[in-house]
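Local shape tokens:
==================
===
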Amino acid sequence: MAYLSKDLSVLAYANGFTLWHYATPDAGAVVDTSGYFNPAADMLRAGDMIIANLETAGTQKAGLFFVRQAAAGVVDVADMTQVGTANTD
């Protein structure tokens, strides 16, 4: 799939930093590809963080993306840091 603006929302904003939430059926490897968030380049800034719920149509995953670059219409996020691991209980 592709980035959908309706699935990106602000959770908090302070001191020039924005914490975002994004939900998508896409996998983390797709979302962290440079350019995935280019349509949001006018909103995202380097240093912002995105809490993401991924693979929402299957076995869901959650993680954090750090916005490394957001300038001149280009957005690049770092590889996802996954939150939670397999439950071994």
